[in-house]
Write a structure and sequence with these properties.
Distance between the termini: 74 Å
Shape: globular
Oligomer: single chain
CATH superfamily of the largest domain: GntR ligand-binding domain-like
CATH architecture of the largest domain: Up-down Bundle
Largest sheet: 3 strands, antiparallel
Structural class: mainly alpha
Strand content: under 5%
CATH topology of the largest domain: Four Helix Bundle (Hemerythrin (Met), subunit A)
Radius of gyration: 21 Å
CATH class of the largest domain: Mainly Alpha
Number of strands: 3
Strand order of the largest sheet: 1-3-2
Number of domains: 2
Helix content: over 70%
Length: 231
């Protein structure tokens, strides 16, 4: 049969470019939320934010809608967009649930993790410790979260992962802020050392309890300085 003269339809490059830009804006805004550049309760000035990110307001608004679906931003028809401010009760509930998800991830990971995955976690741990030695909290936190994420992936449970990711997005800014005290940061580092040792032994009970307690201590650190107005 002679080859057809019909060519395959061209991919829509503008849509791909737009999707990529949209993803980059979401990621950048997420980083700004985590690192405290955008504070809880802060009203988001779209004009100023678009200028800062060097984008138009249309993809910015699309990104804000994504963050609103993740409950990181609150959209008001009459007042615009605000960084979501969780109440004390919401923080308590969210960390309590996350502590259970982290424990379950740890228990499953100890059963299912491969040697190559443990090696990857060990490498991330070494990188995290290097950032800690330099007192680089933002990069320390990113390495820290990659460790938690790798453990969750090693659990190999898609439903658990979906729930974990959705809740963790809301808690990122609070998890980072819990290490702003030098003493609490030191304790968190020591706990991560113990977690890695338990994972290497595949001790599900110990690792699960370590991670559960680790999250509840982060909750307590966050709530220590929480205003009584946000109960």
């Amino acid at each position: 049969m002679p080859p057809s003269n019909e060519s395959a339809p061209a991919s829509p490059p503008l849509k791909i470019a737009r999707a990529t830009l949209h993803d980059r804006i979401v990621e950048r805004l997420h980083d700004m939320l985590i690192e405290g550049e955008l504070a809880p309760g802060e009203r988001l000035n779209e004009v100023a934010l678009a200028a800062r990110l060097e984008v138009s307001r249309t993809p910015l608004r699309e990104a804000l809608r994504v963050l609103a679906s993740q409950r990181l931003v609150t959209l008001s028809p009459h007042h615009g967009a605000f960084v979501t401010r969780m109440t004390r009760a919401e923080i308590d509930d969210a960390f309590e649930l996350m502590s259970a998800l982290e424990r379950f991830s740890a228990e499953l990971a100890c059963e299912r993790v491969t040697e190559s995955e443990i090696a990857a976690i060990r490498a991330e741990h070494a990188e995290m410790m290097a950032y800690w030695a330099r007192r680089d909290l933002p990069r320390y936190y990113r390495a820290n979260q990659r460790i938690h994420d790798l453990i969750n992936r090693a659990a190999r449970n898609d439903e658990l992962r979906e729930t974990y990711l959705a809740l963790n997005r809301r808690l990122h800014p609070l998890r980072l802020s819990s290490n702003r005290s030098a003493a609490k940061w030191q304790k968190a580092v020591e706990e991560h050392e113990a977690m890695l040792a338990a994972l290497e032994r595949r001790d599900a009970a110990e690792l699960g309890e370590l991670m559960r307690r680790h999250l509840l201590e982060k909750r307590d650190a966050v709530l220590e300085g929480w205003s009584h107005e946000d109960r």
